[in-house]
Amino acid sequence: MTTSKTVKEVAFVYWLVMVGCSSALDLTVGVITEAGSLNSSLIDVAFARRVNYNWRVLQGHTLSYVHVNVSSCSSHQAVRTVCSESGLSCLIGVGSCSLLDEVSSLSKSLQLPLIALPTGLCDSARLSKDMTIVGSHSSENIVAAAASIVTSDSIISSVAVFYDGLQSTTVLQNLQSSLSSAGVSSLTFRVDDTVNASVTPDLVHHLKRLVKKKVFKLLLFASPRNALSVLRLAREAAVMQQNYFWLVLDTGLSKADVLSVTPANANVALLRGSVFTECTAAVMDVFPQCQTDWLRTLDARFVDAVEAMAKALNDSLLDPGFSPGNASCAPLRHWTSGSTVLNRLMSISDYDTQRGLISFNSSTRHFSSQRV
């Protein structure tokens, strides 16, 4: 008992020394989200419960955020708004490939580290550059898995591929190449129009054509909103009977989302980057009523990103000369400490596992996430 008490006392004193010997800082993160991609209440809870209520993550300091919410057609608005803010230490971006591409360029100019959380399947090589780390499953692995699944039946000669404009054309081309190399042709359909990025009514006509052509395997990758709209229309067009197989690629959907718009006897599968088999303590901090079927991978990845960025900032504060939050757009001035935080984030070897539980080794300064 005496030994245990002594250890606790020493740990508490160490914490007081760590807090007392350094001035408390309020570090600020720029959170850029595409409209409809992330619930604003989730952002509040993630920062509060996983960082500011947890002294082990950001010792003696607080982490606040500036939320910039933009439409899918307003990436330049995001850039202007971020440039109008002062005192930012880093960025977290959630949205389409095109939005994150713009934000990635901005992070390079400002030398602000960015964790990019795509709501689509983006070209990983294009996005992972300079000051950006992609906190998502590999699009290359998802494409390879999808092609393997839909071509597993040797009698299948063609597959219908539905996508929207928020996805990477490179990923689409890679998918077509993978199907072609397996001897399967692909019939591609863009499901949204270029005006308001919503599902076009013409899709019903294309779905009915597939019934006549007897194409029974269908692959869908689109934003969560558009993906659910496509599945609803497919149900109405009788392209969800038992002889049809739909493979939906994870762009931020939960299993419950898909089940809510499909018949009970439909053959629909959701291909996710990781399979959630349990609600960990970290995830339940933010989702107390956690149920794996209802948990979106995108939400879990955001919680993971907030905690990872906080830990990287905390570790960077130990480096002499580190000065958080002095980036500026006008005149454009580089934040010389940005590379310090980036180096901490670069050591997250398996960050794309999308889990909220991260361990940090202070001696090696390496992050790791629990793989499921």
Automatic annotation (TrEMBL):
Protein name in UniProt: ANF_receptor domain-containing protein
Organism encoding this protein: Macrostomum lignano
Sequence intervals crossing the membrane: 12-32
Database matches in InterPro entries: ANF_lig-bd_rcpt, Peripla_BP_I
Pfam family, one: ANF_receptor
Signal peptide coordinates: none
Subcellular location(s) of the protein: Membrane
Highest taxon in the source lineage: Eukaryota
Main location: membrane
